[in-house]
Every structure is written in C-alpha cells, then in structure tokens.
Input
Amino acid sequence: MVKFMLKIAADLENLTNLQPQGGCDDPYFSYLFKLKCGNCGEMSRKEICVSLDYAVRHPWAKGTTNLIRKCKLCERYGTVTMISGQGKPLTLEESEAWKYAPLMLFECSGYEPVDYVFGNGWKVDIQDGTEFEGVDLSRGNLAKYGEEGECPMIYNLRSTFDVVW
Output
C-alpha cells in the first residue's frame, strides 16, 4: 500500500488560517478527488467522496477502510483509507512563502488519488479574530468583508498528492 499526503496551498490576504470547518480531522468533511487505477491506468470519470465518518470492513485485511472500489475497465478492486492526525491548517506564513500545508493522509491499495477538488465546509480565520465557517471554495476563490471592514481573500488554490513512506 502506498500513502499519499494531500497538501494544499493558496494565496491568502488578511487571513491567518485555512482549514476544514471542524479542523483537519473533521469527521464530516468531504474529500473529493478522482482515482487512477494502479493496474490499468483508467481514470474515474467523476470525483469520489471520502470522509472519516464513513468506514466499511476491509475485505482482505484487518480493520476498516473508507472506500472500496472496483475499476470499471480491468475489474480489480482497490481501497482508500484515511489516516487522521497528520494535517494542519494552511497559515498566512506558509502562503507567503509559497509552501504547501499537509491536510490529510490517504493509504491506497490499487488506486492513486488525483485532481483534488476544493468544495464546501472550510473555515477561515481573519487577522482581526473573526471566523467564517461553511466557506465554499468550489469557485476557486473567496472574498468577504470582516467585522472591521477588512476584505479577506483566498485565490490561486492549489493541491498536490505527494507519496510518503
């Protein structure tokens, strides 16, 4: 099994943190991405959705997994298991240094995660201490007004799945 760390980056203005609404280990936060079959290379047509709150019994190993999927082309099975406790919020300092922040670790067998999709359920902390929850980043950016007239902005959203050992 190969482990993939989902890392995110963005340009932040007047913000201190960007993270899932309930923190990086939010059990109800949905991760959307496509899967590439490790056997035949077939790419899923649509994004799949995994979250920590949904797990099924692993069919060929002890424990549970968050997704079991059969490739439509070669008909091999694969799994995606989320490993919590590895993520942290994207900070303003990381954004200014063009660094990526780790968000979630995925252990994959038979599949490779690709093309992460930013969606709904994000939390942003503004420099004045105000928090916005339930932020939708599906449009690729955000611009809101804080209580003291600041305009927090998020743009140039980026993500990568890095192999970790």
Q: What stands out?
A: The chain has one domain: 2-164. The two ends are 10 Å apart (CA to CA). Helices lie at 92-96. The CA atoms of residues 41 and 111 lie 9 Å apart.
